[in-house]
Amino acid sequence: MSQADIAVVILNWNGKTFLEKFLPFVIKNSKDHARIIVADNGSTDGSVEHLEGYLPDIDILRFDTNLGYTGGYNRALKMIDARYYVLLNSDIKVTDNWLMPVFELMRKNENIVACQPKIMQYNNPDVFDYAGAAGGFIDFLGYPFCRGRIFETLERDYGQYDKTDNEVFWASGACMFIKADYFHEAGGFDENFFAHMEEIDLCWRLKLSGKIIAYCPDSVVYHVGGGTLPKTNPQKTYLNFRNSLWVMAKNLPAKKFYKLLPVRLALDELAALKFLINGNYKNSIAVLRAHIGFIRKLRLMRKHTHKAKGVKVTKKYRRSIVWDYFVRKKDSYNKLPKDRFSN
Predict the structure, then answer these.
(1) For the residues 73-81, what does the mean pLDDT come to?
(2) Which of 82, 80, 11 is nearest to 40 (CA)?
(3) What is the pLDDT of residue 40?
(4) What pTM was computed for the model?
(5) Region label for 171, one of left (φ > 0), alpha (ψ between -120 and 50) or beta (otherwise)
(6) Measuring CA to CA, which residue among 302, 245, 247, 253 is closest to residue 271?
(7) Is 195 within the bounds of a domain?
(8) What tens digit of pLDDT does each residue of 22-67 get?
């Protein structure tokens, strides 16, 4: 593939420190294969000035305000002509051979329209990263988890997911490879989400059209995490709980959605109670706020429902990951019953 085929697009918002630290690795390990573009979401920390002064060969797209992950990428990708997009967080360190193994996997199977590499922690490189790990899944109540990460339990990587089925349910937005035509055909990211869970919504829509989402263990990147919002930030809790409910509302048939909704809301309330018992009042309130935010736009989300048109959605976990993790103590993907993943 030539540089004209691939665009590595980094969405930046006040991430000058990360650009200084990690962009040189992106340039070194990508420039022969891809265009590198930074889309700036109205930064005020001197990010753009740094790029103009020290990395003048990098293409820059400047937005006046912070459009969020969803709006920033939607706007940027409409302006970029390429066959493949690589959506890359600014706080990720890429490795020498991070690009081509993913594209080779996608070329082998034309139905693979989105893919992610193995995502490890930057500060603890033997441990899978929270945001994507070895590929994402979702249970029947809409709770996401990963190979290598279930809730707060993160596994060490000893190659347990290197020789496995490449297909997953969702690919991480921290480092997502996606075919441009399918991104636009699916309508891009839902800008109601602003940030968090939007990649799961997009991947679900793609799967409803019969496409495959994949994981490539031969490509490895290292993620700092929490660059914009720390994991314990109440605003992140709010977005994750609200947006997760919206993902269900948009992608499940009405009968199934309304049947599962009371159970899902009750489990969320238990999570709020757990935050409260642990003294984390702000996160407890964030869950309740998320439910209010979810209800306010529920009718709008149901209008945007995507129907499968006879397509069987694969790699969905047909059990409760909450029950399996907290009650049955199944704290890793390899402990889960594989016959409960839809094929």
Answers:
(1) 97
(2) 11
(3) 97
(4) 0.94
(5) beta
(6) 245
(7) yes
(8) 999 999 999 899 999 999 999 999 999 999 998 888 999 999 999 9
Say which residue, 329 or 232, is predicted with more confidence: 329
Which amino acid is located at 218 in the chain? D
Which structure tokens are listed for 228? 């914009």
Closest of 55, 63, 48 to residue 31, by C-alpha: 55
Q: What's the Cα-to-Cα distance from 226 to each of 146, 195, 232, rounded to whole Å?
A: 18, 13, 9
Split into its structural domains, the chain has a count of 2
Say yes or no to pLDDT of 228 above 60.
Answer: no
Stated length of the chain: 343
Q: What is the CA radius of gyration of the chain?
A: 19
Q: How far is CA 224 from CA 70, 206, 287, in A?
A: 20, 28, 25
CA distance 193 to 179: 22
Per-residue pLDDT at 230: 63
Mean pLDDT taken over the chain: 93
Last residue of a domain, one of 223, 255, 283: 223
Are 222 and 117 a contacting pair, CB within 8 Å? no
**Single-letter residue type at 130:** Y
Distances (CA, A) of 189 to 27, 184, 192, 218, 291: 26, 9, 9, 27, 21
Reference 78, options 130, 24, 39; nearest CA is 39
Host domain of residue 153: 6-223
Per-residue confidence (pLDDT) for residue 307, from 0 to 100: 63
